[in-house]
Specification:
Blueprint (H helix, E strand, L loop, with lengths): L1 E4 L2 E4 L25 E2 L3 E9 L15 E5 L17 H7 L1 H5 L3 H4 L17 E7 L6 E3 L3 H6 L8 E8 L4 E6 L5 H10 L6 E5 L5 E4 L5 E3 L3 E8 L5 E4 L9 H7 L7 E2 L3 E2 L4 E5 L4 E7 L3 E2 H6 L11 E7 L2 E5 L9 E3 L4 E4 L6 E5 L3 E7 L3 H4 L6
Antiparallel strand pairs: 1-2, 3-23, 4-5, 5-6, 6-13, 7-14, 8-11, 8-13, 9-10, 9-12, 11-15, 16-17, 17-18, 18-25, 19-24, 20-23, 20-25, 21-22, 21-24
């Protein structure tokens, strides 16, 4: 309302039913069901990264090389469906049962010293692509028991799926036989630690397990899809003289002289290839040219008696559309291009994977919570 007082115009704002200034904001109601949804990637600069991600992504970064593309990071944003615009962390916090199949606030422990850290996240898996143009540090991750003794919810077992590799591509996984902790300490200090590492040649389509406690390093010459427990706990043993912090004592505490790390032989089945099955995550490869239903996917679960859990589809070749099943719960179709990732919540209604071309994809299954969590009251 505008009126004149003297020679000055005055604007009078009349507010009906004003709210107290200290009234809390309304909290959105949790979702009870969630349809499959696409996630936008997050591009993370690293000193060892690449100045261009083409042809994988239309991204150039000559001033700040990109080393990692996080597909399911806590800050990655939901791109489709009713939760569009929310970060994955916010969605996990709002609707844990719909997304994960259980309530993370009850079954997981939190790191109270770093409440915003990735190690504090309750989304169980972090999936990302690695674009290494230089050697990554020689490093090691703690197992769950050691991480939890330090106040973290989980340690870090990971694996690499080789998307692309030059003929001479290698990674370092584990140590040569009979290497002692004293020798590791000495060689980490004098700069000769690389001579203690076990190097293996890699090729596209292979899976390399890197279980917690394994000394390892990624080298240039490959593009890797990394699937890991959602944890940021990394202890650097050696970093080639780069000006970054090292964690010698913590590394020596976390490392294990022998582990199960190495190339995992695939198991070819009638309708898919089982690449890796573990208590931490499972990975399967599919090659289809006709529609595939969620009912069929669910029938292939490693354990038919396991409760529903979160899983992801990553397209390694081709494109697809995700649609509802006939007479099923309605949701907006989701289009997926090559290298896109789709989240399939535990509560997802029935759906169809409709290939737009010959389609290859990975299904990555998160762990069932009862095997991967710890009750803080135990």
């Amino acid at each position: 309302m505008l009126f004149i007082k003297g020679n000055l115009p005055v604007i009078l704002v009349i507010q009906s039913n004003p709210k107290p200034v200290d009234e809390p904001m309304a909290v959105p109601a949790p979702f009870t069901t969630l349809p499959p949804f696409r996630i936008e990637p997050t591009f993370v600069p690293r000193i060892w990264g690449s100045e261009t991600l083409r042809p994988w992504y239309p991204v150039d970064a000559s001033d700040n090389p990109i080393g990692e593309v996080w597909l399911t990071g806590d800050d990655c944003v939901v791109a489709t469906g009713p939760a569009t615009g929310q970060t994955l962390a916010a969605l996990v916090d709002l609707s844990p049962c719909a997304l994960l199949g259980y309530d993370h606030k009850i079954t997981c422990i939190r790191n109270t010293e770093s409440p915003n850290s990735a190690a504090n996240s309750n989304s169980p898996l972090l999936i990302k692509l690695l674009f290494a143009q230089q050697k990554l540090s020689v490093q090691v991750h703690p197992d769950d028991a050691l991480a939890q003794s330090q106040g973290y919810p989980r340690g870090k077992t990971e694996c690499w799926y080789v998307l692309d590799a030059k003929p001479d591509a290698q990674v370092a996984v584990g140590l040569k036989p009979n290497i002692t902790r004293d020798e590791i300490r000495r060689r980490a200090i004098d700069g000769t630690l690389e001579s203690c590492l076990n190097y293996i040649s890699i090729a596209p389509g292979e899976v390399i397990l890197v279980d917690a406690g394994t000394v390892h390093a990624v080298l240039p010459g490959s593009v890797l899809l990394e699937v890991q427990e959602n944890s940021d706990i990394t202890y650097r043993l050696f970093d080639y003289g780069r000006p970054r912090s090292l964690h010698l004592e913590k590394s020596l505490e976390a490392l294990k002289p022998t582990t199960n790390a190495g190339i995992i032989p695939p198991q070819k089945l009638a309708d898919r290839t089982l690449l890796l099955s573990s208590e931490f995550f499972s990975i399967e490869s599919f090659n289809i040219s006709a529609p595939l239903s969620s009912q069929h996917l669910n029938s292939l679960n490693i354990s038919a008696s396991s409760p529903p859990t979160l899983s992801y589809l990553f397209l390694t070749r081709g494109s697809a559309r995700i649609t509802q099943v006939p007479n099923g719960s309605q949701f907006t179709p989701v289009d997926l291009s090559e290298h896109a990732i789709l989240a399939i919540p535990a509560s997802a209604p029935g759906f169809l994977i409709q290939p737009q071309t010959d389609l290859e994809f990975l299904r990555i299954i998160a762990p069932v919570h009862s095997r991967r969590t710890k009750n803080t009251n135990d």
